[in-house]
Design a protein that fits this description.
292 residues; alpha+beta; Nuclear Transport Factor 2, Chain: A; 7 helices; 12 strands; 35% helix
C-alpha cells in the first residue's frame, strides 16, 4: 500500500510539473510576442527594460556578442531609426521549457541611418528566425538568423548576382533576332538613352519597351544592311548595374559603308528586369559611315 501511494505521489508531481512548465511557456510566448510587436511596430524601444529583459541579456551575433540592456536597446534602435513604414510580423512561434523559436518578417522603407548606412529610400522585405532563451519570465538571450546578402541587395548596396545572366540572355536573344525576348527582359518603364550625337538620340529618353522597339530597333533594322554585336564582355558592378563592352559590326544601306565601332552599354536592373540603358559609342564613326 505504501508503495502504491508513493507511486501515485510521484505521478502526481510529474503531471503537475508538466502542466506548470506548459503554463510557463505559454505565458512566455504571449509576453514575448506582444513585447516585440510593441517595440518594432509601435516604436516603443523603452520596452527593452529590466521588466521584460534580464539585466544580463545577451544578443549573439557574428561581429561580437552584445551584453546588457543598454547595448541590446542600442542595437535594435538602428532598425527603428533606419526604417519608416515598418511592419513586423511573427509568422510562427513556439517554445519548450525556457526556449522559444520565432519565424518573422520585417518590411519597411530605408529613410534613416542604419548601422552607419545612409538612407537609400529603398524598401526591404526580409524574413528570418530568432532563437530565444527565457529566464524567470524575462528575455535572457536572442540570436537572429537572416540572409544579410538579401538585405544588402534590397538596399541597393550589393548587386543581384543574376543581373549578368539577365543581360547575357538579352544579348543572345538579340543575336538570334528574337526581339520579343529582348523586349521581355525590360521593365515596363525602362528608360533608354542612346549616346549623345548619335542620330538615334533624337528620341531620348525612350520610355518603355514599345518606345525602344519603334524608336531604336525598327530604325536600326531599316537603316542597316546588317547590324551585329561582337566581342560582348559583361562586367558586374555595384548598384545593380552591368557594364557591357563590345563592338558594332554593321553596314548602312543608303551609303553602302560598313563600320566597326567600339561600344559600351551600361545596364541598370531591378528585381530581375532592366530599368535603364545608356549607350556610349564613337558617334563620329557612325556619322561618317552614314554619309554617302
Amino acid at each position: 500500500m505504501k508503495t502504491s501511494k508513493l507511486l501515485l505521489a510521484i505521478a502526481f508531481l510529474s503531471i503537475s510539473t508538466v502542466f506548470a512548465q506548459k503554463s510557463n511557456i505559454e505565458k512566455d510566448l504571449k509576453m514575448y510576442e506582444q513585447v516585440w510587436s510593441d517595440i518594432v511596430n509601435k516604436g516603443q524601444i523603452e520596452l527593452i527594460n529590466d521588466k521584460n529583459f534580464d539585466p544580463n541579456v545577451v544578443q549573439i551575433n557574428n561581429t561580437g556578442n552584445l551584453e546588457g540592456i543598454t547595448a541590446f536597446r542600442d542595437y535594435y534602435q538602428n532598425f527603428l531609426t533606419g526604417f519608416s513604414d515598418i511592419k513586423f510580423t511573427v509568422e510562427n512561434i513556439f517554445g519548450q521549457d525556457n526556449k522559444i523559436v520565432k519565424h518573422w518578417n520585417f518590411t519597411g522603407k530605408h529613410t534613416g541611418d542604419f548601422f552607419g548606412i545612409p538612407a537609400t529610400g529603398k524598401r526591404v522585405d526580409v524574413e528570418g528566425v530568432t532563437l530565444v532563451k527565457m529566464k524567470d519570465g524575462r528575455i535572457a538571450q536572442e540570436q537572429d538568423f537572416m540572409d544579410n546578402g538579401v538585405l544588402m541587395q534590397q538596399l541597393g548596396l550589393v548587386s543581384d548576382p543574376n543581373n549578368i545572366t539577365v543581360v547575357d540572355n538579352l544579348y543572345k536573344a538579340f543575336a538570334k533576332g528574337d526581339i520579343p525576348a529582348v523586349l521581355g527582359a525590360m521593365d515596363a518603364k525602362i528608360v533608354w538613352n542612346e549616346a549623345e550625337s548619335n542620330a538615334l538620340a533624337d528620341g531620348n529618353p525612350y520610355i518603355g519597351p514599345d518606345a525602344v522597339l519603334n524608336g531604336v530597333f525598327v530604325r536600326l533594322g531599316g537603316q542597316h544592311e546588317y547590324f551585329k554585336l561582337e566581342n560582348v564582355q559583361l562586367h558586374g558592378m555595384d548598384n545593380n548595374q552591368v557594364l557591357a563592352t563590345l563592338r558594332y559590326d554593321a553596314k548602312f544601306k543608303e551609303s553602302g559603308k560598313a563600320y566597326n565601332a567600339q561600344v559600351a552599354h551600361l545596364w541598370t536592373l531591378k528585381d530581375g528586369k532592366i530599368i535603364g540603358f545608356q549607350q556610349y559609342v564613337d558617334t563620329k564613326k557612325l556619322a561618317d559611315s552614314e554619309k554617302k
